[in-house]
Amino acid sequence: MATVGFNFTKVLAHRKSGVKGKISINNNISVKKVEEHNLVLGKDKQPGLKFTFEFKSEYKPAIGEILLEGNLVFLDEEKKIKEVRQTVRDN
Hints:
Blueprint: E1 2-15, E2 24-36, E3 39-41, E4 44-46, E5 48-60, E6 64-75, H1 78-90
Antiparallel strand pairs: 1-6, 2-5, 3-4, 5-6
């Protein structure tokens, strides 16, 4: 498996209030979408997948939040790509 692309499509940081007392941070990452993303290199077409993700950190009590959205593209053998796609469909 080779990661060949990574980018952010959204970066958001928002401070709602000042820091007071004990702080709690909740982190969550989720994969929003998985789709085929073939890469053409010269005459060859390499099978790949594009994962769309979201990472969110919430600072409590209502201090602020950070939101990162983006994509990750990786290439692998066609057999492995099909296995990953099947796993995603089954879940």
